[in-house]
Amino acid sequence: MEFALPYGKSKISFRLPEGVGVTELKLPEQKVIENPEDLLFSTFKNPIFSKPLHKLLEASKPQTITIVVDDQTRKFPHDKILIPLLRYMENYGISKESITILIATGVHREPTFEELISLFGQYVVDFYTIKWNDQRNSEYIYFGETSRGTPIQINSVYANADFKIVVSDVTLHYFAGFGGDRKSVFPGVASAKSINKNHALVMQGIYPGNIESNPIHKDMQEAAEAAGADFVINVNLDSYGNILDIKSGALNDAFMQAVEKYKPTCTISINKAADVLILSAGGYPFDSNYQQSMKAIMQCQTAVKPKGIVLYFIKCEKGLGIPAFQQYLEQFPDSQSILKYLQTHEYEQGMHNVYLYRKFIEEHDVYYITDLPCEYVEECLQVKYVDNVQTLIDQLVTHDKSIYIIPHGTKVMIEGSSNA
User: Fold this and answer.
1) Which domain holds residue 146?
2) What is the rounded distance in angstroms from the CA atom of residue 178 to the CA atom of residue 232?
3) What pLDDT, on the 0 to 100 scale, is given for residue 205?
4) Please, are residues 140 and 191 in contact by the beta-carbon 8 Å criterion?
5) pLDDT score recorded for residue 326
6) How far, in Å, are 226, 243, 271, 328 from residue 103 at the CA level?
7) Is 310 in the same domain as 389?
8) Bridge partners of residue 248, in order along the sequence
9) Fewer CB in a 10 Å sphere around the end CB: N or C, the chain?
């Protein structure tokens, strides 16, 4: 049996023996919106718990408008959403000079010029002001604290704008529950101090797809509401970046309806966990760096039994994505040592990722198919480096083992497994 899993911008193929107990866990095909621009404009006319966008603009008469957008780590169709939005605003007399596109980089690095062109196209880069959130060096406006004591420091380009628009995709997130909407504001355009306090809440227990009892989500929501947004555009996408739905309108209200519509499209139910999980993050940009690739691990690990085998396909051509990741791996030999440290010390950025990673490798037998150096994989990440995929599969996969294959792990949430 032949399989091919996404790996960067290409695929890696392998064979499984005939007759083995393998199941490929793929999301069901969804109906793609054929005319997304028509749907987009209809959501502007009939938004959720908001006046129509043109009415808001007419009443506000803004001199400055900031549009918050996803960064280079997301597969967002800016050509089908942002470009029509800019054209729509120009038709209502909004000049290009009054608009700033603010990239919600959060803790991520700034985009390269080539990435800006890839995200927005040459025209937008040439004729619009584009900025991004530099969590340590941007200017921030203070909006007080959340009920959990998180300081709300928001990028001044967003905070001082006369009119604020958030454009985002609603997707699974391994500790926020779901991405999009409030998360694009906070932590998307927040300071390092704000982000660190919020992300420290990961130690209180979180899991993908949970917003009902998720302290991180609720903290983000409070902070975003304090900063405000005049209009949000939440887009639901499939694993290939096709548009499934658009929910526009008021902050949080449009988000909750988008989540309700999105959740069934990203959920796969299983009866029991497998002995072997063969997993891909879904290729570029989801495996562009190690930080991004962790999402698939967190969302899919319940598909494999405790101490089960995990073969993970992650290219990571841009390295770790977390500057302090290696330092924390060397500092904390296991997940419990991080918890003990945090009893007497302040959380530092990236510690939550190392905590979750440590728990993952403690509970599974892990192999990486990656562009990361072999020495780094085995000595620092402390998992097994795979030089030849087919040879490893021939050794590990036997007829007495059950196997799941997940080709787009970043977009998948596993339900129904007792993990045993």
Assistant:
1) 36-265
2) 16
3) 65
4) yes
5) 82
6) 20, 20, 41, 28
7) yes
8) 233
9) C
Q: What is the pLDDT of residue 419?
A: 62
**φ, ψ dihedrals at 274, nearest 5°:** -100, 165
Could you report how far apart the first and last alpha carbons of the chain are, in Å? 27
pLDDT at position 11: 97
For the cut 70, the answer to whether the pLDDT of residue 417 exceeds it is no
Q: Per the domain annotation, does 185 fall within a domain?
A: yes
What's the whole-model pTM score?
Answer: 0.88
406: which residues sit within 8 A by CB, 6+ positions away?
24, 25, 26, 277, 278, 279, 280, 296, 300, 303, 412
Please compute the mean of the pLDDT values over residues 49-66 and round it to a whole number.
Answer: 97
Residue 11 gets which letter from DSSP? E
What are the pLDDT digits (tens) for 187-198? 999 999 999 999
Percent pLDDT > 70 in the chain is: 99
Give the pLDDT confidence of 332-347 residue by residue, as tens digits. 999 999 999 999 998 8
Q: Which residues contact 272 (CB under 8 A, 6 or more apart)?
A: 402, 417, 418, 420
CA–CA gap between residue 261 and residue 244 (Å, rounded): 9
The answer to whether residue 119 sits within a structural domain is yes
Residue 1 and residue 393 in contact, taking contact as beta carbons nearer than 8 Å: no
Task: Report the alpha-carbon distance of residue 363 to residue 308 in Å, rounded.
Answer: 8
Say if residue 201 is in the same domain as residue 275: no
| pLDDT tens per residue across span 268-304 | 999 999 999 999 999 999 999 887 888 899 899 999 9
How much is the mean pLDDT over the chain? 94
Last residue of a domain, one of 233, 265, 297: 265
Residues listed for the chain? 420
Is 286 in the same domain as 363? yes
Neighbour tally for 220: CB within 10 Å: 27
Which residues, other chains included, contact 79 with Cβ-Cβ below 8 Å and sequence gap of 6+?
121
How many domains are there within the chain?
Answer: 2
Same domain, residue pair 359 and 341 = yes
Spatial distance between the Cα atoms of 366 and 308, rounded to a whole number of angstroms: 8
Domain end residue (candidates: 207, 236, 265): 265
Question: What's the CATH number where 388 sits?
Answer: 3.90.226.30
- 28 preceded by a cis bond (ω within 30 of 0): no
